[in-house]
Specification:
alpha+beta; 4 helices; globular; 5 strands; 116 residues
Length: 116
Amino acid sequence: MASLDDDQAVDAVTIPLAGKSTIADHMVIASGRSTRQVASMATKLAERIKGEFGRSVRIEGLPTADWVLLDAGDVIVHLFRPEVRSFYNLERMWAFGDAPEPASASTTSSAPAGQA
């Protein structure tokens, strides 16, 4: 979370997954203002995790950087552009209604081309 804060991530939240899923213990969701910022945050976070914890991080989505997934084992990090985050609304899905919608959420968003 400190790394994302240093990189000026927007609306960063953490969702505890223990007891809800076996994929990880925590999920972090944050936004960047542009694809360039999302890619930069993802790259820096992966480097920091490797440097501080000695763990390699699997990264998906870096070439387009609309939605980048970092799998660090016990923690999964989703970094989005705001409109993509609003469309998928992972906070609501994974918190099972416990987490509020992000401030930038919109009900009129549409999926970007090539997103599934």
